[in-house]
Amino acid sequence: MSRIDAMRQEMGGADPRAEKKVKDHLEPFVRGFIEKASFAVMASSNRGGDCDASPKGGIPGFIKVIDERTLLFPDVGGNRLFQTYQNFESNPKVGLVMMIPGIDATVRVNGRVEILDAAELDARRMKAETHMQDANSHLVQGILVHIDEAYFHCPRSMQFAKLWDSGFIADNCGQSLQQLVGQEKA
Asked: Does domain 21-155 have CATH number 2.30.110.10?
């Protein structure tokens, strides 16, 4: 028995409700959440297992639900390091956590990607949908996600972190980043 299987057994097994919620498609509630999400973290790794987690943001609805098994992330210009895309060249697997500011729950999606170039996005009439526009706010390429797993995730971690607690946020907003972390930015 593996260490993980032993831990599950020792803790009474996986919660049946948790096991039931993992689907290979978007249920209506999960779809609705994604359509309102304005932030996501996209996790990838290369063939060697080197990982990257990349934040993605935009106006709610920037993540396009193509159908119950497919999402499209139009990618707005960023730092031009392209670590996520480099990982996808050797490993098409992706993990996503999507968030709505102020809501403790998240949605998780795992799947496989297909990269779309700017011309393919243009053919789909995709535009950069952000609250802020600058010289780099244009679509570079897109990530089509073929869903393997999709599910609503409980709010405990957000509550543990007080992520959306207005008092906690106000305390942080009253400080500069340097004051908060106690160091100068590199």
From this structure: yes
